[in-house]
Amino acid sequence: MSSVLLPTPRPLADRHGRVATDLRVSLTDRCNLRCTYCMPAEGLEWLPNDEVLTDREFLRLIGIGTSLLGIRTVRLTGGEPLLRKGLERLVAGIAALPTRPRIALTTNGIGLARRAQALADAGLDRINISLDTLDPETFHRLSRRRRLDDVLAGIAAAQQAGLQPVKINTVLMRGINDHEALPLLRWAIDQGVQLRFIEQMPLDAQHGWNRQTMITAGEILEQLSAEFSLAEDPQDRAARGSAPAELFRIAGTDHRVGVIAAVSQPFCGACDRVRLTSDGQLRNCLFARTEQDLRTPLRSGATDEQIADQWVSAVAVKLPGHGIDDPSFLQPDRPMSAIGG
Ligand code: SAM
Ligand code: SF4
Question: What is the pTM of this model?
Answer without folding.
Answer: 0.96
